[in-house]
Amino acid sequence: MPTSRKTPARETKAAILRRLLARKAGADLAAMQSATGWQPHSVRAGLSGLRKAGYTIKRADAAKPDNGPVYRITDGPAGAR
After folding, report:
1. What is the pLDDT averaged over residues 59-72?
2. Strands 27-28 and 70-75: what pairing?
3. 74 vs 57: CA distance, rounded Å
4. Does domain 13-74 have CATH number 1.10.10.10?
5. Which of 13, 22, 58, 79 has its CA 20 to 30 A from that of 28?
6. What is the 3-state secondary structure (H, E, C) of 5-71?
């Protein structure tokens, strides 16, 4: 009789984005790119997808002039709580 093995659920790239954006410090475009392996336009599309799903994402100017803007989730959809 074969035994079934449960493989752990793989974290999706959208979940990785949500986790990065939920941090108090948020995340910049470069951090989201390196975490997902996506191109900049794909990261921005992922942000749009999260917005369409009901997340409120705020964009703040960079603390340092050499860095890009920082994005952070400030509110989520009603079903996500």
Report:
1. 85
2. antiparallel
3. 6
4. yes
5. 79
6. CCCCCCCCHHHHHHHHHHCCCCEEHHHHHHHHCCCHHHHHHHHHHHHHCCCEEEEECCCCCCCCCEE
Q: Distance (Å, rounded) from C-alpha 21 to C-alpha 70?
A: 9
Q: Which residues of 4-17 are buried (b: 16+ CB within 10 A; e: fewer)?
A: eeeeeeeeebeebb
User: What confidence tier does 79 reach under pLDDT thresholds 50, 70, 90?
Assistant: low
pLDDT, average across residues 18-44: 95
Give the angle subtended at the CA of 33 by the CAs of 18 and 10, to the nearest 5°: 50
Q: Where are the domains of the chain?
A: 13-74
